[in-house]
Each structure stands twice: as structure tokens, then as C-alpha cells.
Amino acid sequence: MTAKWRPGAVVGPQAKVMVHLPDHGAQTARARYEIDTALGTETRIVNQKGTGNRWVELGVYRFGSNPEVRLSSITDDGTGDQDIAFDAVAFIPGTYDVPGAVPDIRLPEPNPLAPQPNDEDQPIDVLPGGPFRGAGAPARTQGTMTAQDAAGLLDASAPKAGCKPVKGKPDTELCIVPRAWEPPARSSARPSDELRAGAAATASAATPFCSGNSAARFFTRTQGCLQSLVDVQQFVSGSLFASWTFTYQHEIDLAINSTTFTQRISLTPYRTDLRMVAVSIDIDPKCTPNCTTGPMSWSSPNLWATATDLHTANATVNQTWTGTGGNDRLKLNWTLSGRIEGKQTTTASYSSNEMSVRCDREAKSSPNPGCVFPDYTPTYVVNSEENPAAAAFYWILMQKLPSHPGSRAHNAPLNYLASTPRQNENRKVICPKSGPDRWVGNPASNPPGTTSSCDEYPFAATYQSGGMPPQAVSNGKECTQLYASPPRRRRVDPPGGHQLQPGQHLERDLRPGQHPR
């Protein structure tokens, strides 16, 4: 005999199922309850033995339009001499926060022809401050400098420490002074706007990555930008006599499959002064250790003859890592110096700091050695169309595990483990292929004609792996286990309407532990 219980109204999307056991006629230890849910049929075995009337919870489930609970008089250990109690069943709708529960995820069929995501399309990280330490206030005007403009430069009203005296003119000193970055703004009041717009377009073409963001310092895994304003100043008898301001854009382009990287620099007059002519700026790049620097190539002169000369000077230089070991972290340094009518100014230097470059032969993503910004946290884009189950697997564990491994939102990046032997040891712990604790796939995960495999997250090639000390488990059985499977068949009354719905569902084996498998 089989008894069926159906609620008189729609329940859900969630409901708790309770069964009542009376104080008599409840003798079996193996009562088999079947619960039809939105995801298929679940089975729960209940020990009905006990004293007194009581309610027993079968669990919390998601229900569709036809929820049903069934109980058969046949058990898997039946001998015909024990009673089974058939009593009330309660469906209790509500929103239940079940610890560790997997959300209701319906996945599409995998598409093996899905295009691969663009891994180079990475979010931009913005760094605080500018490239020059202690840079002064931004310039206050754009265009040709007036006496009123000069009077307004309060922080430049006296010679900077170390300004260089001009030989034969002890009352004259020349300086180069970096200023905080201020994205240039056009002013329709000046007739030179058209010329300045043309210069800005030239700079954008030469440094396209820099031109896409108004921050002073920002980078991705393979591109970086540093932007500043730079003043070339002349002081006479201790007072500012004249000053030019340049926009300075410095772009660094790396490659994951090349040890040679390119730097591009654009200099554009932002504000000029009729009293100062023949202004030039030189740049001296350095790279250490195990690094060579090629010649600086200017596509247009880095000399501005008059205050109406507003051309952009673009420079390119290549640097190459020459290390023979596994990796080197390179420090980049640049020194700027100016000239006014051939007379040398002081110098101003800056370093890569948080944008230092790492070149190595250890990354598995490229067959050739290459270079990246190691302080940038890259984002791995999962092809959710090609591997929907894997994408759901990673997402669930990033949300549910307390450490949120690999979650950009929780600032919890995974750290790459380069050691292949250690990676293999991690896999042996989580997905052992032999021994009493070997991994055995859930039968529901591989219907006839398919195979299943063991994967782990966090990955074996990361320091966050469940097999990696100090958080290492003894074997994968201690881990939360998820598996993908087609929807299970639901019983249909009357018989004859069995269907296997398309798509996949992500199921959960409830086992203790912190690390997924």
C-alpha cells in the first residue's frame, strides 16, 4: 500500500515538510518517505519508533505546482511483523535560510562551441596618489601664462630647493617641478583651442590606454599608466619669472609571452609663457635588475621653440628582461630634466613602486617567458556558456565558504602555486584515485553514456587548495561535495507521462568540512 499527501493549495517556492508519528502503530525503523520537489523526487528514511505523539521534520524543499509526499508499506528491511504509521503531513511555506544549502540553479546544456571570453579585458585598478612623490598643487590655468597667473602660484613663488643656478647669471635659477595630475579641460575662450585639441588627439593616439582614464595611476595585468603635470620654471632674484606646464602621460605595455616590453610617453604643452622660449624635456629610463634599456625614440621633437608651439612630443623605448632564473621583479625608474634656451634645469625622478614588473618562466598560461604587473589582481573569466556547471560550482563556493576564495567583491584573491609537485600532492589529497578514500562519482552525475571527473575549488594550483597546509584536510571525504546531474524523473499520476527535463541541476552531498571538491 502507498499513501499520498498533497496540500490543498500552492506552497513555496520553499516549504518545510513535517510528518506526524502517533504513540501507537509506529514500529518500523526504515519508513521510506518520497517527496516530489521542483528538482525531482527526494527520499528520506525515518525511524518511526518512539514514545508519545511527535512531529518529525523531513527537510526544507523547493516545490513546483504539484508537491506530493508518499509513504509505502514496503520497507527495505521489512519482515511483515512491524507496523508503519500513516498519519498527518504538514507543508509549512516560508523562506528558510538553510546553512550550506545550494540555491536553486537551473543550468543550460553546455555549448562546446561557445567563444572563449577575452581574458585581456580586465578591470582597471586605480592606485592612490601620483607617480611623483610630494608633487605640488595642480596648475591653475590653461593657455598662455599671464603675470596674474604667476602671482597666483603661491606654492611656486620661491625657488624650489635645489633649483639650478645658470652659469654667469647668479640671480637666475631653473627648475623642473612635478605637479599633481589634473586632466586637461578645454576652454572655448582661447583661440588656440583648436591647436590644443589636435595635440591632445595626437597624445591619445600615442598613449591610448592612458587616454581612457582620468586617474593619475592605474593598471591592469599587462598595461599601466602614470600621469602628471610637469612645470619648467625660471626664477629671477628669488621670484618666479616664467613657467611652462606640460601634461605628462606615461604608458607601459607588457606581454605575457615576451620579455621585451614597451613604454610610450607623451608630452603636451598645457600652459605656456611668452617670456620663455626654447623649452625642452629629456627622459632617462632605467630598469634593474637583469634588464637592458634600448634607445629613446622621439617621433617628434621634444623641443618647443615658442609659446605658440603646442605640438605633442611622443617617445618610445623598449626594455628587455635578461634574467636566466625563474623570475625577477624589475624596478623601473625615470628621471626628467629640462632645458631653457639650452640651459639645464634640475631633475625630477619617479619609480614604478606598486607598478613594478615581474618577468618569469613559471606561468603555465604561456609557452614563452613573459612579464606582468604582479601587484595587479587579475580576474579569471569562466566560460559559463561552455561550462555552466563549473561556473555555478565556483560561484556557489565563493559565496558560501567563509573565506570567499577567489571573490573580487570580498577582496579574497587566489594565490598561484607554481610548484607542479605540490599541485599534484594537493590533487591526491582532494581527489585520490586509489585507496579506501578514493574518489567515487555520484551515480546521478554520470547517466549512461557519460563520464564524470573530480574537480576541486579552490584549485589545486593555488595556496588556498584544501590539500595545501596549513588548511589541509586528510582527504576529500571531509569536503563539501557538489555534483551536476540531469533533473531526476518525477512520478506522474496516472502512469505514462515520465519526462526527463532538459538542462542540468547542481546537487549537494551533505558532508562536513570547509573545502569544496
TrEMBL record:
**Region feature (Disordered):** 412-453, 465-517
Q: Which InterPro entries match?
A: CBD-like_Golvesin-Xly (IPR033803)
Q: Name one Pfam family in it.
A: Golvesin_C
Upper lineage: Bacteria, Bacillati, Actinomycetota, Actinomycetes, Kitasatosporales
Q: Which organism is it from?
A: Streptomyces tanashiensis
Q: Where is the Golvesin/Xly CBD-like domain?
A: 3-91
**Compositionally biased residues, Polar residues:** 443-453
Would you say which domain of life the source belongs to? Bacteria
What name does this protein carry?
A: Golvesin/Xly CBD-like domain-containing protein
- In what ranges is there compositional bias, type Basic and acidic residues? 505-517
